[in-house]
Design brief:
By secondary structure, the chain is of the alpha+beta class. The protein contains two helices and two strands. It is elongated and about 75 Å long.
Length: 81
């Protein structure tokens, strides 16, 4: 027996998750990244030959793919798993 419209629930969930994303404490997430950093891949965007302290050196610009899962309760408290 359906008691409400699933589309309504989905629409409200999207708004909820958007609000949670917008209100994330960036410093807390940064701390979690430092604690749990899990680099799952990288790519080299560009490289260049440079001079550093009068010597030839190589500069590489990398892009990292980082995975981080955050689990929180309804009060917004982190659940450490």
């Amino acid at each position: 027996m359906k008691v409400t419209e699933p589309e309504l629930i989905e629409e409200l969930e999207e708004g909820l998750f958007q609000a949670v994303k917008e209100s994330l404490d960036r410093s807390a997430v940064s701390e979690l990244l430092r604690e749990r950093l899990n680099v799952s891949g990288f790519s080299c965007n560009k490289g260049d030959m440079v001079v550093h302290d009068g010597k030839v050196a190589y500069s590489l610009d990398l892009s990292l793919t980082v995975d981080l899962k955050i689990l929180m309760d309804r009060s917004g408290n982190l659940i450490r798993d």
